[in-house]
Write a structure and sequence with these properties.
This protein is α+β, with helices and mostly antiparallel strands and about 200 residues long. It has helices at about 5-10, 30-40, 45-55, 100-110, 125-135; strands at about 20, 60-65, 70-75, 80-90, 115-125, 140-150, 155-160. Bound molecules: coenzyme A (COA).
Length: about 200
């Protein structure tokens, strides 16, 4: 596959689209800063993000412009359904298709894994995110009262049928490694070699 370095170099070209690659442990400080900007008091800390990268069945990607992380997203595949764990785009470049790029990558990965469906939680007052999810075909399944704390806000659980039968091995953790993360093609080229699961810790998560 083409190298991650090439993808990042392309991101430095004026007007270039962000490139997608695996979320590496070295990205955690930048992503934590984005978390704080996007989610305020309920932002994930650096420790929580690092734990996510190590946890079983996780698959995380970042969108970069040069060396700058401008978006991130991740999923958890439990052997049946894929849960969208998070998605965020830097405020300065929202509404330019990066969220679509990230969510497309997650859902492509979920389909590769054979997930029967994708699930997510979203604040009931988060109109931009709900609009994004609805564009992909997610529908509301249920309302979860006071799901977000400390804000004390309800969540919608949304679901997208993917048609898979569920995976064979209960997760994406078995085959990935940190080196696999280096092989990244932007957007459509994101495929099985972009396996962000670096830790394969079956006890985590
Ligand atoms: C939700 C989020 C990831 C979307 O990222 P993005 O890069 O702006 O999304 P895109 O540019 O790909 O938008 C795709 C579609 O989503 C919808 N959408 C995105 N932002 C929207 C907004 N502010 N208002 C209404 N619809 C919006 C639109 O349908 C849009 O398509 P359009 O621009 O052609 O109308 C981004 O707003 C974000 O980071 N929000 C803060 C973090 C967050 O809430 N994450 C979700 C947690 S569940």
């Amino acid at each position: 596959m083409s190298g991650g370095e090439r993808a990042v170099d392309e991101g430095t070209t004026p007007g270039a689209a962000p490139a997608l690659r695996a979320f590496l442990p070295s990205d955690v400080p930048q992503v934590a800063e984005l978390e704080r900007q996007l989610f305020g008091p309920s932002a994930w800390s650096e420790a929580m993000l690092a734990g996510e990268l190590r946890a079983h069945g996780r698959w995380y990607v970042v969108a970069t412009l040069g060396d700058t992380v401008v978006g991130y997203a991740g999923l958890w595949f439990d052997g049946d359904v894929a849960q969208v764990m998070t998605i965020g785009v830097a405020p300065a470049i929202q509404r330019q298709g990066v969220g679509t790029m990230l969510l497309t990558a997650l859902l492509d990965r979920a389909r590769e894994l054979g997930a029967s469906a994708a699930l997510l939680e979203v604040r009931v007052d988060n109109a931009p995110a709900i609009a994004l999810y609805e564009r992909f075909g997610f529908v509301v399944l249920t309302r979860r009262r006071r799901y977000y704390q400390p804000e004390d806000v309800d969540a919608w659980t949304m679901r997208l049928e993917l048609g898979g039968a569920g995976g064979a091995d209960g997760g994406v953790a078995a085959d990935g490694g940190p080196d696999a993360a280096a092989g990244t093609d932007p957007v459509a080229g994101l495929d099985a070699d972009l396996d962000a699961d670096a830790g394969a810790d079956p006890d985590a998560g």
